Structures
1.
Amino acid sequence: MSTDRTSPGHGGPAGPAAIGTDTPAGASGPATGAGPRGDTRIHNIGYRGYDGARLGRAYARRSLYTQSLRGSYGLGRSGKSKVLPMILFAVMCLPAAIIVAVAVATDLKDLPLDYTRYAIFTQAVIGLYLAAQAPQSVSRDLRFKTVPLYFSRPIERVDYVLAKYGAMASALFLLTGVPLVILYVGSLLAEMDFAEQTKGFGQGLVSVALLSVLFGGIGLVLAALTPRRGFGVAGVIATLTISYGAVSTLQAIAWGSGSPAAVKWIGLFSPITLIDGVQTAFLGASSSFPGELGPSAGAGVVYLLVVLALVLGSYAVLMRRYRKVGL
Amino acid sequence: MTALDRLSLDIGPGVTGLVGANGAGKSTMIKILLGLSPATEGRASVLGLDVATSGGAIRERVGYMPEHDCLPPDVSATELVVHMARMSGLPPTAARERTADTLRHVGLYEERYRPIGGYSTGMKQRVKLAQALVHDPQLVFLDEPTNGLDPVGRDEMLGLIRRVYTDFGISVLVTSHLLGELERTCDHVVVIDGGTLLRSSSTSDFTQTTTTLAVEVTDTDATPDGTRALVDALTAAGITPHAGTEEGLPGAGHILLIEATGDETYDVVRDTVAGLGLGLVRMEQRRHHIAEVFRPQEAAGAKGPAGGVGPTTAAGTTGATGPSGSAAPGAVGAGTTAQAQHAPRKGGARNEH
């Protein structure tokens, strides 16, 4: 019906008359591409309501989690924002791949680097990733005042905080866990002892899971304090490097000045040495403290408690922070 | 700090305007209605749901367009609105379909795939409106949707808001500090000031009493003082111009302000000007600034504190119920309401430009 009326002859003075006669027919069906005048009206199909499912709060929280996790690797964002996280991810995996290649080629009996040591070894990369992505995740919403758009929807403050925290921790877990998977697969390819490797791999995963939750919380708190992305980046880097630098210097001084008992307590004051202490005490890791003076199981409980307190504290600060910015 | 003080109000379906100066409590009211900021006392319900207990259920069925800029510049309108649709609980496929539909309805086409950072203010306002409508709510709260728009953009946005109700069937609560622009868009206008109800009435009441016409004419050789001649002619025709003139504006002293009682006023003015052989420079409807409604309030306040307390209790106890709202508080707070209506005549019209 519509195709035979697409001739361009409808333009000009003849138009109104022609359209006048066509109108009843044109209105009865959703014709497309008719005469030049009738076009706009025919194309304009009216507003359609939505009667489908509304999946509610839990679904919205899940959607926010997925979106934030993808965003942490630049997925669903501009090409430019994929560059840094992807480079850091590659940098994290590269040493593992090299170790595996060497192990397979030279037929080693054991991995030259423990699973639990890998994250300590690559802590600078983890810190950089956190500094880049934590502000991306929360400062943007604050800076562009997008937060009210979320809180005017079914989700509550707790959903927002949990989704963002969960996404950041998951992103860190991917960053630190994938190299361990590479190491594990490599060790099996090199036909190392299966039971021993599986145990080490499991301990490594627990360790990086703890690290991800701890670092994620600290990163998000520092980033959420300021809507300025730059301050967030600087804050995260400063906190991680300064605390680690101070702790390792003090530990070296304590070790050198003949008070080795102080070494393990000083380790409580920086995130990475906290993880080091916990895994030394409970996950069979060898400590990277001076003289390998990591905490024993007793002191390890203190380490664990401090980690838990920091995680819960981060959560509480985030909840408090978003109570203020609500709408 | 008290943002809203004993304000009772009942809003029915349709487009309702909420007018008040900055700090009058408009945004606070929206926050309370969204269940985000609990009122210290009293109660409110939206769509039959109590805001204190069913905030989540309310927010699933209403849309909210914030007053301020709230759009991240590095994502496209489509990405943002799809995400927001999912945050409202729409499944992924439905979210994409509704986003395409909604953006088309608010007038965003090819540009919806470009990052929002490059949009004009008018386009950004449309994106903000789209994200409030994408989940097909039963009611939307629009907080100052015409902020920052030029006159043409304002008119387009107001037309769009009107369509949200007439074509989409979504009721609207829209705030503004400009009474004039809401008069033309809303079925019902509520005026609040300092957290108290000043006035609640259907727009027909408003326009009948507050439409002011500004007329400017040229002088000719035959009538050296065209303005004076027109005043005389109009008075003879039964229309009395306002005594007050506009000051400090282009054409000051030459602009006549006339109360328009209906379409026939326009005809009389046109015929009179033509009869005198004058050139008609302008004949336009003046937009009233909200200050006009507030001015008598100040006058009443000067008489004594009783003037301020009277209407407050009236609003709190009687309540303004639907279309009869103008009558209910008027019974007790009659002084305030009546004076408000006379404001333009007393002080000369102040305009919004």
Note: The two ends of chain B are 33 Å apart (CA to CA).
2.
Amino acid sequence: MQIDASVLKKEEKVVFTLRSLYEKYGFNQYKMSKFEEYDLYVKNKDFLVSDNIITFTDTDGKLLALKPDVTLSIIKNTNESKSTVEKVYYNENVYRVSKGTESYKEIMQVGLECIGDIDDFNIYETLMLACESLKSISQDFVLDISHMGIVSEIIESFGVSRSVEKALLKCIGEKNIHGIKEICKNEGIDGTKLEKLVSLYGNPQKVITELKRICQGESLNQLTYIVSELCKNGYQDSVRIDFSVINDMSYYNGFVFKGFINGISAGVLSGGQYDNLMLKMRKKAKAVGFAVYLDMLERLEINDKEYDVDALILYDESTNLSALNDAIKLLAESGKSVAAQKNVPEKLKYRQLLRLKERGVEIIENNA
Amino acid sequence: MKSLKTMLNIALPKGRLGEKVYTMFKDAGFPCPSIEENSRKLIFENEEKQVRYFWVKPSDVAIYVERGAADIGVAGKDILLEYQPDVYELLDLNVGKCKMAVAAKKEFRDDAGKTLRVATKFANITKNYYSSMGREIDIIHLNGSIEIAPILGLSDVIVDIVETGTTLKENNLEVIESIVPISARLIANKASFKFKNDLIEQVLCGFKVNTEDNND
């Protein structure tokens, strides 16, 4: 069977490209049911983007939910072999409340997870695939990378309460340097390092040089190592170190990252290492992964479809069915899309308007 | 609008604050002569400087920026606290200074045993403030003239922006608690910050030089 790629929408094309990309790197598709036991989400509520979940009772009275998230289901069912790495990808719909409308929305998500004995190579590969995923959507993309180890080290050195930590993290996420200054002033701590960390952005090599002046240690070495590797492999213009990528510290550790496409106003890819979440779910293995949100890609297609149909063929009650059929077949065989109607539908954009007469097809209007 | 992508789109809050903020942009090196002519237009461009300004309702600036219709904009901290938009808050401009406060009639005595009735435009700020204290409240959401709510007995207190306190005084009200200081902030769309980084950094640079002057 041959598929005409031109009939596919942008997000459909992306789904196919991503799937073949992940398959190529040895990831297997993970297929799951639309439903999951509600219990799973109650225990890990903070991990989810929104609290609202669509629930319903199964025939046996068990409370089920329409999946708001895929990662939790994958972790729940993992075999967690400690010496190898389980590599899976998924392509599923999730159900979440969208921010503006406060109503439920179905969002198509594609993503991948590596679970097991995660090492630098797995992290590198995940980040590389994140870049490749973005690239398959548009050449003009940016992947912001942060390392929670570096951020949490600085924040923990302050020895402040949880609520102050949370307020600081919020400021980091907003690149809100004046906010950090104020909190540090109120708490009587020296926030210079943190302010510097937040202000860093841009070319990765340049940022790393600056970073080495304010911190050192395992996390920085790992960040330097992996980011340089990405730069060496052709992503130097797309990868940025940006510490404003903040994910919940009680779930994420190590690398966290977010992907952006020029022309889409919010991030389309989000991921990181979530060893802490694994621990919470009593799994011994480590994990890293990301998800691509496809619901915003339709905004990318700047050119509206020029024509709905190539040829609109008009007929009336007296038209002979087989004559009409022949005319449509002839047009279709020449590679045109054809619609047959008795009257011209309002607002339909056609390239050519034809009328079927007794003697044959007559062209009434030519638009291109 | 063929050059929509290469220009920096800036949303300014309509009104006195917006005019002040525009002068700050101008001093930062991004003037736009056509904006200074008195006209009914809403969009103004300076192609040479690659900027496009537009006036929008102050409370809408955050929405324009969050959704990427504007790359950067200026919004009050009150709006950012109330709507929690997913944007970068790059700079405190130190203008439009006022505070979010709780006010009540002069003779008001708080009875902690009762649910407090609070009239406000800022439901989220109010909810967060009182829940941080563990106080049970009943929020009465109003869109304007908040001051008359306690006078007519609609509410016990109000949560609103207080600039000079004149309106409160004239209505026999007074501030009983301050919640948070407010001022105008320069905000940026998260994706624009990456793809128009050079332009945004230039604006930031120009602003930083000037705000530091102001603080001296």
Note: The mean pLDDT of chain A is 89.
